[in-house]
Give the backbone structure.
Amino acid sequence: MTNPTTLTMIRPDDWHLHLRDGEGLKAVVKDTARQFSRAIVMPNLAQPVTTVSMALAYRDRILQALQMDGKSVVEFTPLMTLYLTDNTTAQDVRDAVNCEHVYAFKLYPAGATTNSDSGVTDLFGRCAPALEAMEKLGMPLLVHGEVTDPDVDVFDREAVFIDRVMLKLRQQFPELKVVFEHLTTKNGVDYVREAPGPIAGTLTPQHLLYNRNAIFQGGLQPHWFCLPVLKREVHRQALLDAATSDSPRFFLGTDSAPHAQHLKEASCGCAGCYSALHALELYATAFEQAGRLDRLEAFASLRGPAFYGLPVNTTKVTLTRSSYTVPQTVPFGDDSLIPLAAGTTLNWTFSEG
């Protein structure tokens, strides 16, 4: 594809998204709904979403946040997930399978990222009955793939997780559907590409576009700090190769994670990059840099539904080759937040199909 002026494709979905709650939810959900038809919504609220009833209540709050004068502003479907804990039971899994609005369980190793203190500490012990039920009933497990041992270098946490957790998980539950979320390393890409059984990996715009130098360019840059953290250039290239390949195992998941500006720019700043505002512009930039704009639709719109067994969307969106300057700030309830790559100019602008 040689320098097209427009790029029209099937409306995509976001297979990894943080929406928060309350006023923060109201501030950000429309950004996602403007570009995406559906999104897998993460359950790591301040009070984790651990039951079907909690997921349904959260879904109602998301849909309410999209309304104006009692009517939905846009058509958007939140796909709910439950937070896997040491106390999750096989019955919890059966309840989730029987709910049409719950699509997966999320594994957070305890302490791995934002609001992960309730995460799993005994995956192959206390969680085994739940994993067995998930495997039997076809319920996907979404994995934050990092170990949290303080003696493991933060840049090696994903690779060590593969050796310590993923290999054993696949051996014990070979037919469990697994999504290795927000891959950041060549190790992760190679594992997902070659692993047996039903497995996929999501890729974020920040990990496709930037390496770890971005965190320190011109001083400490907190708005490029996320977990898993950005890695070396060799890993970024491996991720980009995977995203633009023919493999059906890699698809879009922004991991867009809003935090108020003052919580990012703090002595102990929060991890997370906000990209929902301009996600498709960022992905188009990455794919164009790789010379593979022709692969963007498959990555963004086709592979995710295939893995989750959902229909492909029927509407379309268009990206136009025109300058788009990322805002310096956007409203976030009573606060503001800084979007990823704030102040920079991209070559693509989103519009409806």
Remarks:
- The chain has a mean pLDDT of 95.
- Residues 157-172 form the longest helix (16 residues).
- DSSP finds eleven helices and 15 strands in the chain.
